[in-house]
Amino acid sequence: MTLNRRSLLYAQKTYMSICDVVNKRSLSFFTVEFDWEDDSNKRLVTKEFYDKVFHATNTHTKLITQKSVDARIAYDLNPKFDKNGNKKSYQPCYDHVTTPQLVGRYLYEEKKHIFNYSEEGWTEFMWWFEYATNVVETTKEENTELSKLNLTKPSDEKYEIVGIILCERFEESKWINSIPTDRKFNFPQEFLDYEKKCLEN
């Protein structure tokens, strides 16, 4: 587990929130109960998970698209500077390899047993939270195209569908030295099976 302090805080808040929903922990003066069958209620859980993953620290897969490598090289040749003459840092764009909202829904529907306020449940939840923070560096244009495929195409096929060439960064080399690779991000089969079921409905 490599979650840093910032990510752990977000993960802890998410775990407690979903635990409260699953176990119907509430206050006596609350008048509305959570109902998973209500689509607007589902969004409360999936949005809670997505928001915290989005604001947590990205987990880098060391994968970057060829177009993003090219964009970095082009920036180095023609960088931007601030008003004091200091070179501005290159601003990369990142694509979450999974769809965090779907991961949140998967956990609620298929892994509900982990939301029991236990250390074992928390440990498994942390694994999935970190899994959802995995990113690949892309260009903004690629990220836009990839986002169109969320919840419409399988996660393990979307890069191929868009025609993206993946490169890999090795050791402490610079991103511009990344080279094309056949390495793929590993998706748990149980999650892919669940995603397939959702796409078919």
Please provide a brief summary of the model:
With 201 residues, the protein is of the alpha+beta class. It has helices spanning 5-22, 39-55, 66-77, 100-110, 119-132, 140-147, 158-162, 189-200; strands at 59-65, 93-96, 134-138, 166-168, 179-180. The protein is built from eight helices and five strands, in the order ααβαβααβααββα.
Can you walk me through this structure?
The chain contains eight helices and five strands; from the N terminus they run ααβαβααβααββα. With 201 residues, it is α+β, with helices and mostly antiparallel strands. The protein has one domain. The protein has a five-stranded mixed β-sheet with strand order 2-3-1-4-5. The radius of gyration is 19 Å and the shape is globular. 27% of the residues are buried.
> Into which percent range does the helicity of residues fall?
40-55%
Placed side by side, the strands forming the largest sheet appear as: 2-3-1-4-5
Strand content: 5-15%
Structural class: alpha+beta
**Number of helical stretches of at least 4 residues:** 8
Q: What is the overall pLDDT average?
A: 93
Largest sheet: 5 strands, mixed
Shape: globular
Radius of gyration: 19 Å
* Order of helix and strand elements from N to C terminus: HHEHEHHEHHEEH
How many domains make up the 3D coordinates?
1
Ends apart, CA distance between termini: 34 Å
Name the poorly predicted regions.
none
**Strand segment tally:** 5
